[in-house]
Amino acid sequence: MRKIGLAVGLALLTGVAQVGIAQLGVAHAGDLPAAIAKRGTIIAAIVPNYPPIDMRDPATNALTGLDVDLGNALAAKLGVKMKWQETSFDQMLAAVDTGRVDIILSGMSDLASRHNAASFVDYMKSGPQFYILAANKAKYPNLLAICGHTVGASRRTSFVKEIAAWSVAHCTPASRKPIKVIGTEGSADARLQLEQGRVDAAMQGSETLPYVMGKEPGKYAPLGKPISSQLTGIGVSKKDTQLQTALAGALQQMVADGTYGKILAKWHLSGDAIDKVTINAGK
After folding, report:
1. Which segments of the chain have a pLDDT < 70?
2. From CA 222, how far away is CA 163, in angstroms rounded?
3. How far, CA to CA in Å, does 97 sit from each of 235, 236, 249, 279?
C-alpha cells in the first residue's frame, strides 16, 4: 500500500489543499483501502432521477449521465470497477456511514450542514436558478418581479431555504411582498406544478436546467442568474480518509489529463467544471 505525506493528507481532508493533489503520482488500486482493492469494486449509491446527472437511458434502461461516466472513469483510473447501487436519497448518508456503500455519487451538494455525516470530494459547481414558463417572460422582466409570487422547489434540496433567504435579502428591502415557497417532491414535481399554474416560478440547479430546457425547447426560460454558488461532491465516510484521498488524487489527475473536461463537455456542463479538487469546501 502506497503512503502519502502526512501534511498533504491532512491538508486534503480539511478541504484546504486546492493544488498539488496530482503530485501524489499515478493513481492505482494500491491507493484504495485494502478491502476495496481486494474486492475490485467501489460500491456507489445512486438515484437515477436527476438528468443529466443521474438517469436511465430510455432506450436501454441502462444507467447513464454525468455521474455514471465520471464514476466509471474514476474507478478505471484507480484500477477497479464502479458498482452502482440504487439507494433512496434519504438513506444515502446513512448507507455510507454504516458501510453499506463506499461512496455517494448522485449529484449530492457539499453542504457544511452535511459534514457531520460525511465528507465530500468536490467535483462540480452549480447554483440554484429561478425559471418560469417562457410564455410569462413579459410578466417577470427581472428577479425582483418574482417577489410576492409562489415558487416551487424540491424539498430534498437546500433550495427551499435559499429561496426564503433570498426573499428576505432582496424582496423585503425593496418593499415587496415575500416569496411564498412551495416544497415539492422533486424537480419534476416542481415543473409539473409550474405547468399547471399552481406555482408562478420554480427553482432548479444550473447543472440540470439546460438539459430540461433542451428537452422541451421554448417552454421554459431562466430568470436572472443563479442566486448562489455551491459544490457537488462525492460523499465518503468521514472515517475513511484513505478513500477520500485516493478519490481526490485520481480526480485531480482526470482534470489534468483532460478526461474530466471531456465528460462534462459531453453533458453540456463545461460551465460547471472545477479546476482544483477540494474536500469539504462546501458552505
Report:
1. 1-30
2. 15
3. 10, 8, 22, 17
Which pLDDT score, from 0 to 100, does residue 2 have?
30
Compute the distance between CA of residue 237 and CA of residue 225 in angstroms, rounded to an integer: 34
pLDDT of residue 219: 96
Cell representation of residue 242: 484513505
pLDDT reported for residue 18: 38
pTM of the model: 0.75
pLDDT at 268: 87
Complete domains list, the chain, with CATH: 6-126+230-279 (3.40.190.10), 128-223 (3.40.190.10)
pLDDT by residue (tens digit) across 203-233?
A: 998 888 888 888 899 999 999 989 988 899 9
